[in-house]
Amino acid sequence: MIDSNGALDFEPAARALGMLLRGVTDDQLTCPTPCERWTVGDLLDHVMGLTVAFRIAAEKGPDAAPAGPGEPSVAKLDPQWRSQLPVQLDELVAAWREPAAWTGETAVGGVMLPAEIMGVVALNELVVHGWDLASATGQPYDANDQSVETVYRLVSQQASSDGTPGLFGPSITLPADAPLLDRALGLTGRDPGWKS
């Protein structure tokens, strides 16, 4: 959804991801996800880090992960993730609602980009990892149309049959009549029919 300032509103994507957190059981933390070699705990650890990094990027603070995201680990997952992650999602939404968040340049993981592009990258992270979490934990995923359209535009420009190291696996082409979310996921190298 585009807000009154013409910026993207992260709230629908953050809400969809946040609703999934309630359905994650402790025994699922070691279950596989669509992200190769990542467990549910690894994925949650990654989301914990990205919510902070992209909030700081919106605020134009110092890069929280100048050497990149590193390898997540269920052993590193903050034991307070159930209470902490919803707060971090709210803070991320609030940070990107500020008009100044969308101006100038900002950095995440050692990558400097125009803020308007970094905001789209952040939204992509929420939407795609929301789907990853839903798929890994057997929950329905309610991604809103505006967010999916934005993500599709981004990944369709970056996708490659060879993949993009550190970002996407080799793209999977889906039929033109497949749901837009499925096509976006395919462009990131994910199989929309993935099951744990």
Brief sketch in words of this structure:
With 196 residues, the chain is mostly helical.
Mind telling me the C-alpha Rg?
A: 16 Å
CATH-wise, what's the superfamily? dinb family like domain
Highest-level CATH class: Mainly Alpha
Are there runs of 5+ residues with pLDDT below 50, and where? 1-5
CATH architecture: Up-down Bundle
Q: Give the ordered list of helices and strands.
A: HHHEEHHH
Enter the CATH topology name.
Answer: Four Helix Bundle (Hemerythrin (Met), subunit A)
Order of adjacent strands in the largest pleated sheet: 1-2
Report the oligomer: single chain
Structural category: mainly alpha
Average predicted local confidence, pLDDT: 90
Distance, first to last CA: 31 Å
Q: Can you tell me the overall shape?
A: globular
